[in-house]
Design goal:
342 residues, twelve-stranded antiparallel β-barrel, 18 strands
């Protein structure tokens, strides 16, 4: 019991230090809907017994593409872009159970109006994610490795979801008039959401080849503004191979679905919050090439998401450019003579 308490205390101290020193933030997506920072293509099984991971990545997204259904259409504004840092601390309490605490920070999130008429921007912390994962199956032979992992997590809103922006300044009194900023530039949607996750892995160590899949469903809750953004689901299929024992090349095909927004019918969402509920939701298929390089306990990785097909309800800003780069560090903070490292 003393050892278990010491492990938990060590884990919580590291989590607290990371969160307090980085002012974590979270998600953002298009057209009144919001995605999830853990839905960006990362496939996670479980860590080894008493293994810890600290990871951080940087994401840049930029788009000036608008669509109606699956066709391009005239833009509603010039550009939408952002710079986003994401953090994760995870610990393997046993060889089957891993717990991670995750969040992120928007360095910048901007919407530039038509002909650069105005700019609405935000920055800061977003959501906190508590994400335990459990290994249902982990079987190895001389030629294969099979793993099945499930997880159930909770997304807790921490950042601002009701930030406002100046829409008019009286030229005589200089009084400023504000309205709610559109949800595309809010750091979070303000709701508590449930996360359901599955991960299937099949590896062939002698060939340095692996195939795997992840499935994620986010059940959105209601926020204090009377909004319930659409649920989110994604399925990713991966194939990867390792070269020279350190260089990993992976190709992912990812399908995503975002449901339409629900809302309090007594509230005019368009007038108050710059949201057209009919212009929310859609689906997308993307291809995501990824590169990784491992050195000792460090793994460096980069990926680019390229949409192959998109469909949106009504008229919405669509995905265009998204790149991610990051680093992961795994280590054993406690001595564990039974662990055999790769």
């Amino acid at each position: 019991m003393l050892k278990l308490f010491s492990m938990i205390r060590y884990f919580l101290v590291l989590v607290t230090l990371l969160i307090s020193s980085t002012e974590l933030k979270s998600q953002g997506c298009c057209s009144g809907g919001t995605g999830s920072p853990i839905a960006g293509g990362a496939s996670q099984g479980v860590l080894q017994d008493r293994q810890m991971e600290i990871a951080v990545n940087y994401q840049y997204f930029n788009t000036n593409r608008f669509m109606a259904g699956d066709r391009d259409t005239a833009p509603l504004f010039d550009n939408f872009k952002g710079n986003y840092a994401y953090f994760r601390v995870a610990y393997g309490f046993t060889k089957k159970l891993t717990m991670s605490v995750e969040s992120g920070y928007f360095l910048n999130k901007s919407q530039i109006g038509l002909n650069s008429a105005d700019t609405i921007r935000s920055s800061g912390i977003g959501d906190l994610i508590l994400f335990p994962r459990y290994d249902l199956l982990n079987r190895s032979t001389e030629t294969t490795k099979t793993e099945i992992t499930v997880g159930v997590g909770l997304k807790i809103p921490v950042g601002t979801y009701n930030d406002s922006t100046v829409v008019f300044i009286n030229p005589v009194s200089l009084k400023k008039y504000y309205t709610y900023a559109p949800p595309t530039v809010q750091p979070t949607n303000g709701s508590f959401d449930m996360i359901f996750y599955g991960f299937l892995y099949r590896g062939y160590p002698t060939r340095n080849f692996r195939i795997f899949a992840n499935m994620l469903y986010i059940r959105k809750g209601w926020n204090p503004l009377g909004q319930k953004f659409g649920d989110y689901a994604t399925v990713g299929l991966f194939a990867g191979k390792t070269f020279f024992k350190k260089l990993g090349v992976t190709l992912q095909v990812k399908g995503e679905w975002l449901g339409m927004m629900d809302y309090d019918k007594n509230i005019d969402m368009l007038a108050l919050y710059n949201i057209d509920p009919n212009s929310t939701g859609g689906h997308k298929v993307s291809v995501v090439p990824q590169l990784s390089f491992s050195h000792k306990n460090f793994t460096f990785y980069a990926l680019a998401e390229m949409p192959l097909y998109q469909y949106v309800n009504e008229i919405q800003v669509a995905s265009q450019y998204l790149v991610t780069a990051g680093i992961s560090y795994r280590f054993f903070p406690f001595k564990n003579p039974l662990v055999v490292t790769n």
